[in-house]
Every structure is written in C-alpha cells, then in structure tokens.
Automatic annotation (TrEMBL):
Species this chain originates from: Ciona intestinalis
Descriptive protein name: SMP-30/Gluconolactonase/LRE-like region domain-containing protein
Top-level taxon of origin: Eukaryota
UniProt feature coiled coil, ranges: none
Residue intervals passing through the bilayer: none
C-alpha cells in the first residue's frame, strides 16, 4: 500500500480512464481536485466552490462531465436537506445545477449513449433520473414498506442496479425511455 496524496480530506473519488485522471471532492478546500494517475504529486484545483455535503462524484469521459450529488443545507425545522445534483465540464468550466431536491441524493451513474443521469435517493426508496438532452427529470419509487438506505447505483445495458443496505438487497430496475 502507498499513500497516493497526503493532506487531503477527500470524501468521494472518481476516475476518468481515458485521460487517466483522478478527481476528488475535498471538504477542507471546498473544491474538486484533479490529479494525474501517471505523474505523482501533480494536481490542479478546479474552481468549483460553494459545495456543502458532497456524497458522490461521477465522471463521464464521453460526455466530458463531472457530476456530483450534494445534500446541501438542512431545511429549517426538519431532518431533510435541500439536495442538489450539479455538473461541470472536466476542466472545471460550465458549472450547472441540474436538479434541486428536498431529498438526499446519493449515488450517481450515467447512461452515456442515452445521455441520462440516474441517482439513488438515500432514504426515500426512489431512483431519480435527469435527461441531459431534454432537461426533463423524474423518479421511480420502489415501494418499500420499511425505511431503506439506497446508496450505490450503476447503469448497465438498459437497467439501473441499486444497493439497499437496510433491505440487505440489490435491485435491478428497467430504465426510462
């Protein structure tokens, strides 16, 4: 084992296998950092700030985007957060809020060919989606009867696979058209 980079408070990481860059959200500097997997100790801080509680970074090299889920600020008088899903180009330009939520978005994945972003909502039993072309969004409820904790999510061949740690299960969900 080796320490790849010291003195960071990285919560979520993502790798772009095409450029061989590693991206991470740094809670101390409130930024996204990109570093080469090939050249040790070479990194660049992308000028992406004002993040609150980033849970997941997802890099889609074909789309040229970094996506992240952010629980944002806690809503007054509740246990809920004002969740956001944002994106930025791989060079840090073109930041955009894609979705505002009153839930806790967690895991992220993309259908690159269909240009649809999917996310798991940590405590609602829903999978959300956002079409990057039409800008339409929605969610699908999985209809759980007891509280759940959906964290991991991955897209593959027309299905979204989601982990649920409270149900001790994996779910396979057909995607939207």
């Amino acid at each position: 084992m080796e320490i790849f980079m010291d003195n960071v408070n990285a919560y979520s990481i993502a790798i772009d296998p095409v450029s061989r860059n590693l991206y991470f959200a740094d809670a101390v500097t409130d930024s996204i950092v990109v570093m080469s997997l090939d050249i040790a100790n070479v990194s660049k801080v992308l000028q992406v700030h004002d993040m609150n509680r980033v849970w997941e970074l997802h890099v889609d090299a074909k789309l040229g985007k970094i996506f992240w889920s952010d629980w944002g600020q806690q809503l007054a008088g509740t246990t809920n957060y004002l969740g956001l899903i944002e994106s930025v180009n791989l060079d840090g330009s073109g930041r955009s809020v894609l979705v505002n939520l009153t839930t806790e978005p967690h895991g992220l994945t993309t259908d690159t060919e269909g240009q649809v972003l999917y996310w798991s909502e940590a405590s609602t039993g829903k999978v959300g989606w956002y079409n990057l072309i039409t800008k339409k969004s929605g969610s699908v409820s999985l209809g759980f009867k007891k509280p759940n904790l959906m964290l991991g999510i991955e897209y593959y061949a027309g299905y979204v696979y989601v982990t649920d740690t409270n149900q001790n299960s994996l779910h396979k969900i057909p995607t939207v058209d």
